[in-house]
Design goal:
Elements (H helix, E strand, L loop, with lengths): L2 H8 L2 E4 L11 E3 L3 H5 L7 E4 L4 H10 L3 E4 L7 H9 L4 E3 L4 H10 L10
Parallel strand pairs: 2-3, 3-4, 4-5
Antiparallel strand pairs: 1-5
């Protein structure tokens, strides 16, 4: 699924990566514990999270996550956004909860990775 489709489905605002909306994401996962993300195969996947921490950006970079969506309207800090930009990591924010965001994506064809998150 293209990142532009994710944006539309989640009615999300793009904070970093407006020029990367054509990026293809292979699957999605939801996690608030970054150790769960580290334990999963996440390359080119979409991470949905409610955690506002630089650890999210760093973990996403290490695992090869393709984009991050912060849920419940949580806004990352300017420092986090600068780090995401430096690492070519698109960041979006949606007002939907983690549960609703996951469900909306699933209903539109996005699937999770086997054994991931």
């Amino acid at each position: 699924m293209k990142l532009s489709e994710v944006r539309d489905i989640l009615k999300a605002k793009v904070l970093v990566g407006e020029d990367r909306l054509d990026r293809t994401l292979v699957a999605a996962g939801s996690a608030d514990l970054m150790q769960d993300v580290l334990a999963a195969v996440a390359r080119d996947g979409l991470l949905l999270t409610g955690v506002i921490s630089e650890e999210v950006i760093r973990t996403s970079k290490v695992t090869g996550v393709g984009a991050v969506v912060f849920v419940r309207g949580k806004k990352p800090t300017a420092q986090m956004l600068a780090l995401a930009e430096a690492n070519d990591l698109p960041v979006l924010v949606t007002r939907y909860s983690l549960f609703v965001s996951s469900g909306r994506l699933y209903m539109n064809g996005m699937r999770g990775l086997d054994g991931a998150w």
